[in-house]
Amino acid sequence: MHKNVVFHHRWLPYLLIAPQLVIVLAFFYWPALQAVWQSFLLQDAFGLSTTFVGFENYVELLRQPEYFGAVVRTFVFSALIAGSSLSFALLLAVMADKPLSGITAYRTLLIWPYAVAPAVAGVLWIFMLHPSLGMVARGLRSLGINWNPLLNGDHAMILVVLAAAWKQISYNFLFFLAGLQSIPKSVLEAAAIDGAGPMRRFWTVTFPLLTPTIFFLIVVNIVYAFFDTFGIIDAMTGGGPAKATETLVYKVYLDGLLGGNLGSSAAQSVLLMMMVIVLTAIQFRYVERKVTY
Fold it and tell me: Which residue of 67, 133, 189, 292 pairs with 208 in a disulfide if CB–CB is 3.0 to 4.6 A?
């Protein structure tokens, strides 16, 4: 029998949600509003003098070719991370969904990398692919590949993408596995009885039923690539060589904290937030049309 929850005190519901609202306002909306306001100011590095300059920080920023280079790098970086991490996670989830001996241990091991901190993940990949110390790098040199992410910008980007995608695969794997296990076995059995092979069953039955999960993970992975890869880039390349791995979020850090240009850094953060909001809206507007609920 279904029973409705009745609050006997009219203020009790508001008191229950008040702690969460305070946290959201204090740590999300207030800093965002502060960044918007600071983007209209010209401030010295020590915060001793402040001048209201309106949209001057935005105009000056949009005149810089380096900024548009960072925009292009960020979009390419995000596409590579989302595509590679989602593809490998889906492959691993399909394999882990099979009734194999010791499958629980395999699933646990595949989830563990998500607990690794971004900076630690970056250091692990540096140890493997460092041009002089890494075992994988030495193996590449033995094959005639002159691997050197310290000097080659393309190699540095590949290295950062590998580390960032590896860090996110476990998260995607968890959701894909849950999505696969929620698909009714009777549907797959009916397709098998109709003569559909494993690949045909996957693309005509399993994949369409996974589209809600895929859509959710695309949004999450794009946000992850735009914001949460800062620690990996900082630990591995510091945005180099020659700004080859300097994404938008890392440029905000370089110009604001290290460069002392707080107004430009705030303007960059506002534009970055707007880009992510627009990208998310586009995904909900067009990509969601192909989702099968």
Answer: 292
Structural domain count of the chain: 1
Res. 205: pLDDT tops 80:
yes
**Residue 86: inside a domain:** yes
Residue 234 lies in a domain: yes
pLDDT in tens, 125-142: 988 888 888 888 888 888
Read off the pTM.
0.86
pLDDT at 138: 87
| CATH number of the domain bearing residue 112 | 1.10.3720.10
Q: 223 Cβ partners below 8 Å, 6+ apart?
A: 276, 280
